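Budget justification note: compute hours in this period were largely spent on complex prediction jobs such as the one shown. Inputs:
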Amino acid sequence: MSSHAWEARTTAFDLAAFPWKSFRVSSPAILEVQRLARTYQTAGEPLTVLHEISFTLAAGAACAIVGPSGSGKTTLLGLCAGLDTPSTGTVRVSGIDLGQLDEDGRAQVRNEQVGFVFQNFQLLPTLTALENVMVPMELRGTRNVAPEAKELLKLVGLGERLHHYPVQLSGGEQQRVALARAFINRPKLLFADEPTGNLDTETGHQIIEALFQLNRERGTTLVLVTHDQELAARAGRVIRLKGGAMISDSGQP
Amino acid sequence: MIALPRHLFARWTWLMAWRDSRASRRKLLLFSSSIVLGIAALVAIGSFGTSLEQAINDQSKALLGADLVIDTRVKPEGERAQFLKSVPGESSTEINFASMIYFPRTEGTRLVQIRAIEGGFPFYGELESLPKAASQDFKQAGGALVDEALLLQFGVEVGDDIRIGKLVTKVAGKLLKVPGESMAFATIAPRVYIRASDLANTELMKDASLARYRTFFRLPENTDAELLVTDLRPQIDKFQFGVDTVAERQRDLGRAMDNLYNFLNLVGFVALLLGGVGVASAIHVHVKGKLASVAVLRCLGCSSAQTFAIYLAQGMALGLVGALFGSALGIIVQLILPHVVGDFIPIDVEFHLAWLSILSAAGTGFGACVLFALIPLLGVRRVSPLAAIRSSFESKRGFDPLLLLVFGLIGAFIVAFALAHTRRWHEGIGFSVGWAMAFGALWTVAQTISFLARRLTPSWLPFVWRQGLSNLHRPNNRTTLLLLSVGLGTFLILTLHLVQNSLLQGIVSAKTEGQANAILFDIQADQRDGVAAVLKEQGLPLLDEAPIVTMRIESIKGKSVEELETNRVERAAPAQPGGPRERRGGPPRWVLRREFRTTFGDKLRDSEKLVAGELVPAVTPDMDVIPISVEDGLAKQMKVGLGDEIVWDVQGVPVKTKVASLRSVDWRRVQPNFFVVFPTGILEEAPSFYIMVTRVADAAQSAALQREVVKQFPNVSAIDLTLIVGTLDAIVSKIAFVVRFMALFTVLTGLLVLAGAILTGRFQRMQESVLLRTLGASRRQIQQILLAEYLALGGLAALTGIGLSVGATWALAKFIFKTDFNPEPLTLVVAFVIVCLLTTITGMLASRGVGNHPPLEVLRREV
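Corresponding output:
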C-alpha cells in the first residue's frame, strides 16, 4: 500500500484508512451475462444494437468494455446495471436474475449491490457534496450517515469542501464526489462509464488509481466502459465490442 | 405506486424535496402565487357567507321589523279592518304608493314611494336616520324622512321644504336604513316616510291611486307567527291578503343570499382554476429541469414511487404555501367584501372569521393545486435511469393511462364544486361544460396560432419580428398558457362590460328621433284636458294617450283562480317537500294574482303586431262575450289560445271575455304597452285613469314639464327615459361592480400566471440572448425580439378574448335578454389596446435583465 505512486502525490486519497467493514462475496461470479441482446423498434424495422453477449465476472475482477462509438458499450452497461431490460438473455447480479424483477426491484438491487461513476459526474445540482454522497445510504433508510460520508469525502481529498454545491467544484472534484458517492454503500459491483472522459489527463489518472485501488483492496468488481486504451490496459480483462457484437474477450481463452 | 403513501410520509422524501428545491424555492413560491388569489377569493366569500348566514339568524326579526306583516291592495275597511283588528298584539300601519314629490328650493321633482306610517313600526331594528332622532320625531312633529341618495341627487338639505301632493312640509331627516331593505331598493324606488295623519293633506288618496296597505304586528310573546298564519289562513285567502313572517323572510333572504354567495363562489373558482392551469404549467417547466436529477436518483436505487413522492411533496408544499397565503389574503378581502356587496344585503354583517369555511376553502385550493400539479408530475414516474448515462435517451413516451385518471379527477372536482354551489344538476353541469368550452376554445386557438406562426411567418419581416414570432411555436413555448390566462381574463371582464352596455343600449335606443321618451300617468279623467294643455304650453307633442282600467282574473276556461292555485300547490307538493313551488302545471301565481292595467281601443299601437286571430275594434250589442286581445307571451303563461274564455273581475264587476287575437309587443319602447286590450264600448264607464306620452328634448325640458304637472296636478306622476336609464344604470353598475371585483381576481391571477410563465422561461431566454449577443446582436435588438413576442401574444390573446366575449354577449343578448347587440367598436379597440399593453408590460418587466447577463455566467451554469 505504501508503495503506491499516487499516494505519494496526495495523501488525501488514503482509502485504506477508511474503516471498511468485512466484505463478503456470496458467489464467486458477481456478474453473469447470458446471450444478452437488445433490439430497438425504429420507424422502419427493428434495430439490433447488441447481439448475443455472454460473459461472467468473478468477484473482485476488473473488466474494461471497449469499442468505437455506437458499438453498444453503453447499452451493455445499462443492461448489466439493470437500467434497461434486455430483449433476450439474462443478467444476474450476485446470483439475482434482474429479468425476474420489476423496475423497483432492480432499483433495490442497484441501491444494495451497485455503484455508478458517470462520464459527466451526474451529481445532483441542488445537493451539497456531502448530501450527494449521503443519498444512497439515505435511500436505504440508514440514519446518521453524515460521519461516514464526511470521512469518505476526506479520503478523496474534499474534507474542506463538504458544503459546496457541484457548480462550485471543478470537474475533478466533482468526479471525486461521485466516487465517494459510488463507494458509500460498499457496492459489490461498480460501473464506470467513461469516468475520465471529461477530465484532464492528470486528474483522470488520479481517479483511475482510486478506482483500481478499491477494486484490488476491497474486492469491488469493476466494470469500465472506456475509449481510453491506457485505462483498458490496466483492467485485467478487456471485452471488445463492434457493431453490437463481442469481437474479443481477453478473459476467455 | 402502491408504495406511494408510505414514501409520501417518509421523512427522507420531504428532506430530499427540501434539498432539491434549493435553487428553485423562489420560483416555486412564485408558482404558488398563481393560486393565492383564487384561494383568497374562496376564503373571503366562504367566511363572509357564514358571517352573513349568522347575521340573518341573529337579526332575523329586524329583517321584517315585525313578527308578522299583512298587506293588501284593497283599503282595509269593514270586515277586512275587523279581521286585522282581531290579530293579537300591537300593530302599526303603513300606506304606500308611488307619487311625485317636489323640492321647491332646488326645483327638483322625482317619482318616489310615499310611505305613510302610524304606530310603532319598526318593532325590531330601527329606521336609521340623520339626525338620529328624526326617525322618531317625525311621527309626532311631522315632516318627511327622505332617502339620502334622493337628497344628494337634488342638493336638498334637512330642513328644506318638500311638497307631496298638496302637502308642503319640511325634510325632517335623511333616511339611511329601513329594517329588512337593502340599499339597492332605494335606487329603484326612493322612499319618503311621512306620518299617516299627514296623508289626508296630500290629497293624493282621494283619486284612484294604486296604494298598498301594510299592517305590521308585534305578536304577544310565545306566539308562533307561522302557527298563527295557519290558523288565519281561510280569512287571509278570502280577503286576498299577502302575509309575510320572519321565518318566511328569513327563508327568502337565505335563498337570495345563497344565490349571491354561490355566484360569487363560482366566479372565485374560475380564478382558482386558472391558477391551477398556471401551477400545472410552472411545475411542468420545473420538472423538465429536474429530469436529469430524477434519472440519477433512479440509478442510485430510488424507486419510481419514491422519486414521484419527492416531487409530489414539492407540489403539496407549494399548494400548502398557496393555501396559507391565500387564506391570509382572503381574510383581508373579507374586510372589504361588505363594502362591495353591501348594497344588496339588507342587514349589517359583522366581521367574523368562520374557520370552518376558511379551512374548507383553503382545502379546495390545496386540492386544486395538487390535482393540477399531478398532470406534469406524472411524467416523473416515467423517467428511465438510463437517461443518466445516455443524455439523448428519451424516457418512456406515449399515453400515460394515469393521466386519464388525473383529468377525470379534475373534471369530477370541478363538477362537484359547481354542483355544491348551484345545487342544481343542470346548472352545475352547465357551468362545468361552459368553462370546458371556453378553455377548449382558447386552447384550440393557441394551437392554431402556434401552427400558423410556424407556417405563415412572412419571410419579408425584419429579423427581430421573425425571431419574436418564432418564439410562439418553438419548443417550450408559452403560447397556450398565455392565451388561456390573458384570453380568459379579457373574456370575463369584457363580457361583463358588453352585457351591461347592451342592456342599457336597448333602452337608450329609444332616444332616436320622434319616439316617445316621457310618460305621465295616474291622470284622472277630469284632468285630461288640463294635462294636455300643460303639454301644449310647453310645446310638447301628445304622442299617445290611453285609458287604463285595473282588473284581476276571476277565472280561466271556467276554472276559478282559487281552483287553479290549489291545483298548482297540490301538484307541486309531493315533489317539493320544502314547500309549494311553481311547476309547469298551470298559470304561474304572478299571473293569477296580479292586477292588470288594461286599456281599450280600436287599433294596434305601433309597438304591437298581430300574431293570430283578429282584432275586434268595438263591442256590438249582440255580443255577450267580449272579444279581447292578449299579449302572446302572457297567453303562453296563462295557457290560453284563441277562443278560450277568461272572466275578469273589473273592480267588483265580472266581465266574461274570450281571446279573439294575440299580439306581440315590443316592451322596450317607452310608451303605453298592455298585456290585455279590450274593444271600445264596454270599459268606458269603469273607473279609469289615463296615461299620456310625449317626447322631451332634454333633461331641462323634462324637469320643467314635471315641475309644472306636479304643481297643477299633484297626483299625476311623470317618468322619463333619463330616469329609467339612470335607475337601470345604477342597478346594473352595482351588480357589475360586484362581478368586476370578483373578476379582478381572475385577471390578476392571469397576470401572475403570465409573469410566472415568463420567469420560468427566463433561463432559456438568457441562453438564447447570450448566443445572439455572441453572434453580434445588440441589446436593443434582443429587447425588440422580446417586444415582438409579447406584442404578438398580447394581441392574439386580446383578439381571442374579445372574439369569445362578443360571441358570448351576442348569445346572451339574443337568447337571455332578448335585446339587440351592437358592440361599440371603440370599446373593443380600447380593450384590445389595454390587454396588449398589460401583456407587453408584464412580459417586458418579467424579462428585465435577460439581455444583460454576461455570456460567461450563462455558459458556465449550463455545465
